[in-house]
């Protein structure tokens, strides 16, 4: 059994949705005539692609629905807090959570809200939710945090286009942490104001790539140092069996690991490479098939570790969450054999392998519609049936939520 501590709290269930379709990243490079020498730095195989009836609401619900389907009605009633994190809000007032709450059938007595801080937001929500659960003010309460985003990047984004993903990750928190028992009180934050990336309108993403990369590395160094000031005797190598980091693209994760090893250990180049292969590479399998899921990215990496390693004993995972703007946190938790069985029924790997693979021409055609996803429209109909042939059904995902229409700015969804 995974390590359990009486009164422990953490992740009870987790699921990822990586879009209904995908495109090989090498095909995207070739189609955009990007420099092939830069392909290897991404360390990616595919990236998720949304269909025109998918948006942040459908991504959130389609990530969370399999978790709730596996719960008893009594357990679902104990979800007292629902938080969605997103850079892809559909309204300046009405939250994504309000739609998700309805289509997930959660209790009318559940709090819900939406939070935003680039790719860090889900971790901020998770830590606040864990504090609520651990406080004991409502014994047995559970919280559901859903990170959900879409990408608005086209050819103008150059090398960021192949790296961006679409989808969501749903994390159920409670006092039966089958997936990961969190190390409460073991964390380090580092945050300051920087304009490295932004989404100033519902149609475009902008960013200073070099500034963002250096800020990521700066935050990794200082958030880990802050973690060390709270946790006696912490060592970057020996304390953590595995590392899961926010993954805009795997090459940046590798650069971050290399920087930390060079500064904190006496290891040589070969030892650093071996350590990366052992402790970090397992976290990159799923991100290499999806792309950057923004605030869900670090939790997709956690799923990747569990499904790739299938730990047979308790193992501590060090986690680094970073969001442009910027806010960051280094924290940790313990996984084990029970984590493997908790994820098995959701078959995240099967979902990712089963997505419909698109040609470059199909991708470009879909992109025209997808870039409209967040643009406010008073009335709109979505031809769901036109795109359903691109959807692959699986036993664990027999149906999905789809955007059917917008009426007087109100988005309307149906199960298909």
Automatic annotation (TrEMBL):
- Cite the Hydroxymethylglutaryl-coenzyme A synthase N-terminal domain residue spans from the record: 79-175
Q: Name one GO biological process term.
A: acetyl-CoA metabolic process
- Keyword tags: Transferase
Q: Mind telling me which SUPFAM superfamilies this protein's record contains?
A: Thiolase-like
Q: Which residues form the Hydroxymethylglutaryl-coenzyme A synthase C-terminal domain?
A: 276-369
Give GO MF terms, alphabetically: hydroxymethylglutaryl-CoA synthase activity
Protein origin, superkingdom: Bacteria
Q: Which family does it belong to?
A: Belongs to the thiolase-like superfamily. HMG-CoA synthase family.
Q: What is this protein called?
A: Polyketide TA biosynthesis protein TaF
Organism this protein belongs to: Myxococcus xanthus (strain DK1622)
Which gene carries the instructions for this protein? taF
């Amino acid at each position: 059994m995974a390590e359990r501590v009486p009164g422990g709290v953490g992740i009870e269930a987790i699921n990822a949705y990586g879009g209904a379709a995908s495109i090989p990243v090498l095909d995207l490079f070739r189609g955009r005539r990007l420099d092939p020498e830069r392909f290897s730095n991404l360390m990616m195989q595919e990236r998720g692609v949304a269909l025109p009836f998918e948006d942040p609401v459908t991504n959130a619900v389609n990530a969370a629905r399999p978790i709730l389907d596996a719960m008893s009605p009594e357990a679902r009633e104990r979800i007292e807090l629902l938080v969605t994190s997103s850079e892809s809000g559909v309204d300046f007032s009405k939250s994504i959570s309000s739609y998700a709450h309805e289509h997930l059938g959660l209790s009318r007595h559940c709090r819900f809200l939406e939070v935003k801080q680039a790719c860090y937001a889900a971790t901020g929500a998770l830590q606040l939710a864990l504090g609520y659960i651990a406080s004991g003010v409502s014994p047995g309460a559970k919280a559901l945090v859903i990170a959900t985003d879409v990408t608005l990047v086209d050819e103008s984004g150059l090398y960021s286009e192949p790296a961006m993903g679409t989808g969501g990750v749903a994390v159920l928190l409670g006092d039966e942490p089958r997936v990961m028992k969190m190390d409460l009180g073991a964390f380090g934050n580092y945050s300051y104001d920087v304009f490295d990336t932004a989404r100033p309108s519902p149609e475009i993403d902008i960013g200073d790539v070099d500034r963002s990369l250096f800020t990521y590395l700066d935050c990794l160094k200082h958030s880990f140092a802050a973690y060390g000031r709270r946790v006696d005797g912490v060592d970057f190598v020996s304390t953590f069996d595995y590392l899961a980091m926010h993954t805009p693209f795997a090459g940046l994760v590798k650069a971050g690991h290399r920087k930390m090893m060079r500064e904190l250990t006496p290891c040589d180049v070969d030892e650093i490479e071996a350590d990366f292969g052992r402790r970090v590479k397992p976290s990159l399998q799923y991100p290499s098939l999806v792309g950057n899921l923004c605030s869900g990215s670090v939790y997709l990496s956690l799923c990747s570790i569990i499904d790739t390693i299938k730990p047979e004993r308790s193992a501590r995972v060090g986690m680094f969450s970073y969001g442009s703007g910027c806010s960051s946190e280094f924290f940790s938790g313990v996984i084990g054999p029970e984590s493997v069985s908790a994820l098995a029924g959701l078959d995240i790997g099967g979902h990712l392998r089963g997505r419909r693979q698109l040609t470059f021409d199909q991708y470009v055609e879909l992109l025209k519609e997808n870039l409209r996803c967040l643009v406010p429209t008073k009335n709109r109909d979505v031809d769901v049936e036109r795109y359903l042939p691109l959807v692959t059904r699986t036993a664990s995902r027999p149906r999905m939520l789809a955007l059917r229409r917008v009426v007087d700015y109100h988005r309307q969804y149906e199960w298909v």
